[in-house]
Amino acid sequence: MRLFWRNGYHTTSTRMLEKEMGINLFSIYSSFQNKDGVFLASVKCYKDLIRKQLLIPLAKKPKTITTLKGFFYDFLNFTKEQKTYKGCLLINTANELGTDMTESIAKEISSFAEEIREHISSILCETNTKTEAELTRQTNYIFVALQGVSLTAKALDKAQIDDYIEMTFLGI
Predict the structure, then answer these.
(1) Where are the alpha helices (DSSP H) in the chain?
(2) What pLDDT does residue 64 have?
(3) Quick count: other Cβ atoms within 10 Å of Cβ 170?
(4) d(CA 149, CA 172)
(5) Considering only CA atoms, which of 109, 120, 24, 133 is closest in space to residue 71?
(6) pLDDT value of position 82
(7) What confidence score (pLDDT) does residue 130 get?
(8) What pLDDT score was predicted for residue 47?
(9) Are 153 and 87 in contact (CB under 8 A)?
(10) Strand 80-81 relative to strand 84-85: parallel, antiparallel, unpaired?
(11) What is the spatial distance between Cα 86 and Cα 84, in angstroms, rounded to a whole number?
(12) Which residues of the chain have pLDDT under 50?
C-alpha cells in the first residue's frame, strides 16, 4: 500500500512490489493474479486504515462544522510522511489513471468516495436547515474541497493549506 501511495500506480513495478513485500513474483501472481490484484488489496488496506483512524472517530464526535473542518486537518495529518503530504492514495490514483483505470479499481474508488460523502452529509444535515438539494450541493462542495486539499497539499505551504481549509468553511 505504501509503495503505491508513495510512487503512484504506474511507477510501482512488480519488481518493486516483489522487493517491498519480500516475496517472489510467482508468489505475487499466485496470490493476487496481477498488479491490479495487489493494488486492490492495497486499497482495501488503505480504506480500513482511514476507517479506523479517521471515519470511526469522526462519527463519534459532535456533528458540527468545526468537527468537519477538523476532519480536513486530521486527513492531512493522515497523509503526511515525515514533513511531506502524500495526498490520498485513491484521489492520487484516480488522477493518475483517469479513464484508463480498470472497472474494479474505479468501483473501489467510487464506493469509498460515496462512504466519505455520507459522513460529510450526515454532519451537514445536523448543522443546517437547508433543503435537500442545498445539502446535496454543500456535500458535493465539501467533498470536492477535500479532494482539492489532498492534491494541492503536496505543493503548497502550510499557510496556504490552512487558508484553503478556512475559506472552504467560511460560508458553511
Answers:
(1) 2-7, 14-21, 25-32, 35-50, 56-60, 65-78, 89-97, 103-127, 132-152, 158-170
(2) 93
(3) 7
(4) 17
(5) 120
(6) 76
(7) 80
(8) 95
(9) yes
(10) antiparallel
(11) 6
(12) none
Could you tell me if 55 and 67 are in contact, meaning their C-beta atoms sit under 8 angstroms apart?
no
Q: How far is CA 38 from CA 99, 146, 150, in A?
A: 20, 26, 23
Residue-level length of the chain: 172
- Check if the beta carbon of residue 72 is closer than 8 Å to that of residue 168: yes
- Which value, to the nearest 10 degrees, does the dihedral of the CA atoms of residues 74, 76, 82, 83 take? -120
Burial (Cβ within 10 Å: 0-12, 13-18, ≥19) of residue 164: middle
pTM for this predicted structure = 0.88
Give CA–CA dist 122/128, Å, rounded: 10
Are 31 and 18 a contacting pair, CB within 8 Å?
no
| Interatomic CA distance for residues 95 and 90, integer angstroms | 9
- pLDDT more than 90, % of the chain: 74
Among 80, 1, 48, 154, smallest CA distance to 16 is for 1
Query: Residue written as cell 477535500?
Result: 146
